[in-house]
Amino acid sequence: MASSTTVKIAEFRRLLSHAHSVLVLTGAGISAESGIPTFRGAGGLWRQFKATDLATQTAFARSPSLVWEFYHYRRELVRTKQPNKAHIALAKAEKRFEKEGKRFNVITQNVDGLHRRAGTKNLIEMHGNLFMVQCTLCQFIEENDSSPICESLRNRGSPDVNPPEIDEKDLPRCTKCKSLVRPHIVWFGEHIWDDVLEKIQKEIQLCDLFIVIGTSSVVYPAAGYASILAERNIPIAEVNIETTPSTSIATYHFHGPAAQIIPQLLSVNLNNE
Ligand code: APR
Ligand code: ZN
């Protein structure tokens, strides 16, 4: 590793040891090494569609069958994947901070649930979670991690074929009123839920060190958090394999894969437990 990187890591660790309220923002890049494709990178297509064409209310209204096949595919894919060293290091750092009476919170744009599975407790899943559904009629929100989520989706969702539509009555239904449910995910063109935004506002207020990992920093509001914090002179560390719109305002840019860099930054030894 280049010595300038070693120096930057040492500097960052010094800041971390003095921080009282660390806030971490993660994006698809943190799960890339778990084998989950990012949105804007290679592998972001399903059938001929971009994720951004399917994760919308318009797409769901046009074809709930197609959109459910896409989400069923992603649910089943994520099930076969494991949290990587970056997720695990964050969960361990949270425990250490809590022991010291300090705050450590993770905001994720990811819907894959890997932070939860790694043991992160102070977690805001700002775009929702693949394993939660919401009723399109009574709005009831519930967890549903059945595999498959309904019989008609068994063996469906393949990225290579375009099978016939599934009848709406055979798609996932609400356990309360039996109406069609949708993934409890914030789609393009939708607003992030108010309670979630309030929690994020609070963390941004309290934050004295910000770490942004594996996000292209183009989707708002998350893309704007770094500049809000930079205006308050809060130190920012970015970890990414590319530069992003946040790079120029970050105090430190750590160039490389999250699973390799995050354990070093957080001084988490993953071998001795
Ligand atoms: N380590 C660190 N960063 C990585 C790695 C890795 N191993 N692999 C990829 N990256 C970086 C890429 O360089 C890119 O900047 O992760 C980022 C992934 O960007 P996107 O695919 O745009 O994902 P994200 O920023 O999370 O997207 C935000 O947009 O599609 C919507 O709602 C969806 O939550 C998503 C939001
Ligand atoms: Zn209902």
Order of helices and strands: HEHEEHHHHEHEEEEHEHEEH
The CATH architecture designation of the largest domain is 3-Layer(aba) Sandwich
Number of strands: 11
- Gyration radius over CA: 19 Å
GO molecular function: histone deacetylase activity, NAD-dependent; NAD+ binding; protein-malonyllysine demalonylase activity; protein-succinyllysine desuccinylase activity; zinc ion binding
Binding site for NAD(+): 27-46, 109-112, 214-216, 240-242, 258
Family: Belongs to the sirtuin family. Class III subfamily.
Binding site for substrate: 71, 74
Sequence-ordered SSE layout with sheet pairings:
Elements: H1 3-18, E1 21-26, H2 29-32, E2 45-46, E3 49-50, H3 51-54, H4 57-62, H5 64-79, H6 85-99, E4 103-108, H7 114-118, E5 123-125, E6 128-135, E7 141-143, E8 181-185, H8 194-206, E9 209-213, H9 222-231, E10 236-240, E11 252-255, H10 258-265
Parallel strand pairs: 1-4, 1-9, 4-5, 9-10, 10-11
Antiparallel strand pairs: 2-3, 6-7, 6-8
This protein binds adenosine-5-diphosphoribose and zinc ion.
